[in-house]
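[Help] Beginner question about ligand-bound structures

Sorry if this is basic. My supervisor gave me a protein sequence and a SMILES string for zinc ion and asked me to "get the holo structure". I don't really know what that means in practice or what format the answer should be in. Inputs are pasted below exactly as I got them.
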Amino acid sequence: MKRPRDNGEVMTGYMKTFIFSLIFMSVVGAKADFANLSQDCVNDLKKFPGAWDDKLLKQACERVLVNSLCVSSEGRPIYHYDKVSSTPGAKKVLVFSLIHGDETPAGTVGRYWMERLEGIDPRNTWRVIPVLNPDGVKYKTRTNANKIDINRNFPTKDWSTGAIENWKRTTKSNPRRFPGAEAGSEPETKCALYHLEDFQPDFIVSVHTPLKVLDFDGPKVSPPPKFDYLPWKSLGNYPGSLGRYMWLERKTPVLTMELKENLPPNLAPFERLQDIIGSLVKLETERDTRPTASPPTSFLPVALEH
Ligand SMILES: [Zn+2]
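Answer (accepted):
No worries, everyone starts somewhere. Holo just means with the ligand present. The predicted complex, written as structure tokens, is below.
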């Protein structure tokens, strides 16, 4: 028979639980409280062009969550949707859509993939953040409400020495690409960093418009999976960009989808692309060694940087 615990032990137990809860809350992050989150999600996502399925969208939006670190600078929730695969050893795919608020068709892809995942048991586990920059979507701007380009605000090692300098030199201080005064300064960047840390993705997809290419920051794939809707082309990456932060510095592949300005007549290419990503993830993450990224194979004018 166990001897009853004395008060000292009980207190220690309570304190341990309390301290553990505090640590848990600060590490995992608390859920932010948005009373109408599901309905907000439905309303937000219906604003993007193209068709949606009412039932699947509602179902997907009923499952979105928002972490306390994921609130935009104007207080809008940056919610995420998780679909866990039942396949043993499934890999994890993280999708950021609308990192740039004026690239509306990117929202269609986020919405469509959430709906589709709702109806299948995927090979990989997926986390979709359909709107990373809700203030930018509201104002139809590339930047967030603080006029900062989130895709130049990631804390890459060369941020302090390179981000501002690169912005001045290569963009002639274009306000659409302002990296901010400090690395990782923006709530939207902090939210993205939270998800990278919390979800520990094997593969990242970032959805943009309008360059009409698939740009893969990852190990060389030859030949790349066939995809007629968009050609594969390397655009390179920049101080403060997600590709530099996650692939060059952390060796997690990043696929940047640059969509056309108009949607395809039906969403079949996005379905096909989701399947290609599923295969690419398997291919990439099964390798033992990962070579360094190859240099950009093409030159694009600065105006075309994603
Ligand atoms: Zn973009």
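A couple of things worth pointing out: Residues 1-11, 288-303 have pLDDT under 50 and may be disordered. The radius of gyration is 21 Å. Feel free to follow up in the thread.
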